[in-house]
Amino acid sequence: MIGLLGGSFDPIHAGHLALARAALERLGLAQVRFIPAGHPWQKGEITDAAHRARMVAAAIAGEPRFTLDLSEVERPGPSYTIDTLRALRASLGPDVPLVLVLGADQMERLDTWREWQRLLDFAHIAVARRNDAVLTLSWPLQTFYNEHWARAAQLRDRPAGCIVDLEMAPVDASATEIRALLRAPASPERDARLAQIVPAPVLDYIRAHDLYR
Question: Which of 4, 26, 32 is nearest to 102 (CA)?
């Protein structure tokens, strides 16, 4: 089974890596593909995709079951997950189970995504649940979730079509906080917090390229 973890990764941080590791361990995945969005259509101003992809590469180096997928970076136009899943299914064949790994916040706004009802035609969905936090879903999303919910052990039985819960410990990290810290004046407290939530190779890259000033 292959896990798919997409996002803007602006920048990638400890929370993303913890989510990927939880998916590997609890869902029994063979690998997790990190898929930086090339042109995330629901975002405003964003760091150049080449920088974001290189930061992901720096963060996952040395993790043999983590790989970088540049398909959205290299594809022109807005980055739609449904297009990525179609392309992956076409290249990997009909039988490989694919698991789209989402944070709870992404699941709660899934009904704003392009062709969201068709995502399960191409992959399973795993929803990260931190300390049994309650999902706040719209009625269509709750119906979608209820109709397709399954246990993690069932993911191997078919290549797509299930929604499973992925329990993980909460990680207090966000790209918004990181960008704010990098714009703030240097201090021991600031630097300690950055070191806690940003992988060292990523922090080195950010400083070398003067990002987020």
Answer: 4
Kindly report the backbone phi and psi dihedral angles of residue 109, in degrees, each rounded to the nearest multiple of 5, phi listed first.
-120, 20
What angle is formed at CA 15 by the lines to CA 115 and CA 96, rounded to 5 degrees? 45
H or E stretch at 17: helix 14-27
What's the pTM value of the predicted model, to 2 decimals?
0.94
Question: Which residue, chain included where needed, has tokens 């939880």?
Answer: 22
Mean pLDDT score, 161-186? 94
176 to 88, 113, 160, 189, 200: CA distances (angstroms): 30, 22, 33, 17, 18
Domains identified in the chain and CATH numbers: 2-171 (3.40.50.620)
DSSP per position, 84-148: HHHHHHHHH-SSS-EEEEE-HHHHHTGGGSTTGGGGGGT-EEEEEEETTPPP---HHHHHHHHHH
Q: In what order do the strands lie in the sheet with 124-130?
A: 66-68, 31-36, 2-7, 98-102, 124-130, 163-168
Query: Which helix H or strand E contains 7, and what residues bound it?
Result: strand 2-7
Q: Each residue of 113-149: pLDDT tens digit?
A: 999 999 999 999 999 987 667 889 999 999 999 999 9
pLDDT digits 0-9 by tens, 98-113: 999 999 999 999 999 9
Distance of CA 124 to the CA centre of its chain: 14
- The answer to whether the beta carbons of residues 174 and 19 sit under 8 Å apart is no
The distance between the two most distant Cα atoms of the chain, rounded to a whole number of Å, is: 53
Shortest CA distance to 31 belongs to which of 117, 120, 92? 92
